């Protein structure tokens, strides 16, 4: 049998991505920005993260920062807390209709040789409810991607391979393996991408290009840390689930 205290407080944790499919208004808490680019030295070693509370009640939140690694081509959060990324304040209580500013600051090596990446989690904390009140508390949980690079460092993205993966619907979709031999991170989604598919007999059956804004709708920004290789699916339906696909990335000026 569930204890009385547990009956009064049942927490439901939602990530920012889950809000879009949950039917729960995503405007109740608003975190901006959700992608942060910092430099390891100079004026851009810090920035401000803002949380807006549009609830009618006070919201307590806690911020934590953990390192990211690339494992099997996937960007994964580790259990390692970030000692060189300062988040201040780490906890706050935000009144209804108010905003709270948090400072995100790199305090590590100013001359890093490789890019560093983190998830800063903004987690809404449960509150104690009055006696004899049963309720379900929906707790919002936002992940903010923070990347740190050295001033003057450059990325060098290259498409290593393109595979066609067929889903349960029988439709083929392209999956890129993109490497970065540069000394800082790069975003695939900030390039122009041209994709060509040829049938097994060599005939060209698809040729299409996407500008950065369009490409980001299909695959996100496509972060590739320095010295890493990422597996990046593109959400398009290919005319055939077989044949060969080639991809060309073209840098776009002033992006």
UniProtKB/TrEMBL annotation:
Gene3D superfamilies: Immunoglobulins
Annotated InterPro entries: Ig-like_fold, PapD-like_sf, Periplasmic_pilus_chap
PANTHER family: PILUS ASSEMBLY CHAPERONE (PTHR30251), SLR1668 PROTEIN (PTHR30251:SF4)
Protein name: Fimbria/pilus periplasmic chaperone
């Amino acid at each position: 049998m569930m204890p009385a205290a547990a009956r009064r407080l049942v927490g439901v944790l939602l990530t920012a991505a889950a809000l879009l499919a949950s039917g729960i208004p995503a405007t109740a808490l608003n975190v901006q920005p959700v992608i942060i680019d910092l430099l390891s030295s100079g004026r851009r070693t810090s920035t401000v993260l803002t949380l807006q509370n549009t609830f009618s009640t006070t919201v307590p939140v806690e911020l934590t920062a953990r390192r990211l690694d690339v494992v099997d081509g996937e960007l994964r959060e580790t259990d390692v807390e970030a000692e060189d990324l300062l988040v201040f304040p780490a906890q706050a209580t935000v009144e209804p209709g108010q905003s709270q500013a948090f400072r995100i600051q790199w305090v590590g090596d100013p001359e890093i040789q490789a890019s560093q990446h983190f998830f800063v989690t903004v987690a809404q904390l449960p509150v104690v409810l009055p006696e004899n009140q049963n309720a379900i508390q929906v707790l919002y949980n936002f992940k903010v991607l923070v990347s740190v690079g050295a001033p003057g460092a450059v990325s060098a993205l290259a498409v290593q391979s393109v595979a066609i993966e067929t889903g349960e619907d029988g439709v083929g979709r392209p999956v890129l393996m993109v490497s970065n031999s540069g000394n800082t991170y790069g975003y695939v989604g900030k390039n122009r991408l041209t994709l060509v598919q040829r049938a097994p007999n060599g005939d060209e059956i698809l040729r299409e290009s996407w500008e950065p804004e369009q490409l980001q709708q299909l695959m996100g920004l496509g972060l590739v840390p320095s010295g890493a290789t990422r597996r990046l699916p593109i959400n398009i339906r290919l005319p055939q689930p077989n044949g060969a696909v080639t991809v060309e990335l073209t840098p776009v000026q002033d992006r």
